[in-house]
Amino acid sequence: MPQPDEGEAHTASPDTAPHPAGPQGFWLTDYDFALRLHNATLTWLELADNMIDDGFPLIEALAGAHAHAPELLDLPAAYGSLVEAEAVTQILRSAGVPVDSYTSPATRQALHRIGDMPAGMQQQILRTAARRYTSTALLPRRNAPARPAPPPPEPGSGHKR
User: Fold this and answer.
1) pLDDT digits (tens), the chain, 161 positions
2) Can you state the percent helix, strand and coil of the chain, rounding each to 5?
């Protein structure tokens, strides 16, 4: 008699689906989580570029990070919207659009204008956004361990007055 796992396709059930860890405290001040958000945004920009290549409209290509965050982005699903918002911010900045808030009507209008461009131009903007975002380094940790103090001078090796 075959074993339950022999010859059967394995799919993730809700019980076995990945459950990435959330931030430690406030998400914006958790350096490791901010780095994961940064990497997830870069991944999402690259995925959107590929989706446009496959014929998806820009807005459709950018939507859905929350649904795919656990398995593709190593983030809890609740943080997928942050990835989408950051990706849109980077796209608009790469297109020369000043972004004051990702919720403003001007942001939505600008995104629709980019979405109306030919796919090749959209991809060029996405690739510029990804390239610029890649070069954006996160600042060093504020709570990084201090460098060890230099050893005290050996007796008799100091300056004499």
Assistant:
1) 444 444 433 344 455 656 889 999 999 899 999 999 999 999 999 999 999 999 999 999 999 887 888 888 889 999 999 999 999 999 999 999 988 888 889 999 999 999 999 999 999 999 999 999 998 766 555 554 444 555 566 666 555 54
2) 55, 0, 45
